Amino acid sequence: MNATSIQNPGEDKVLDNQGLAAVTFTLLWSDDRAEHEDQMHFVKFSVWREADLLPAAIGSRIPGMRAGDSAEAALSVGEVTGCWDVAREVAGSPAGFNRRYYPQGFLHGFQE
User: Fold this and answer.
1) Given its phi and psi angles, is residue 109 left (phi above 0), alpha (psi -120 to 50 degrees) or beta?
2) If you average pLDDT over residues 87-97, what whole number do you get?
3) Mean pLDDT on 89-100
């Protein structure tokens, strides 16, 4: 997993632990069929609120980064998200999906 801090060109600011940053996370992984690359870009990544949710090798390095800096960490399977467990799978019909976004009652009729 890589994290790269991006700022406006020409700015040489140091990101502090209360700052916001444009950050791109890149996950490189492979299975028995292929090698994969997934990227997720955050325009306003909150260092104070979100860096501690990352693997320590990345999250602890984000404060102090400058534009273009990056951090990498080798992760074992399930280290960040946990391993997939069929016992935690839920099922439901599309009719139970409330298309309005309200946290309470967002999904109806799903059973564990």
Assistant:
1) left
2) 73
3) 68
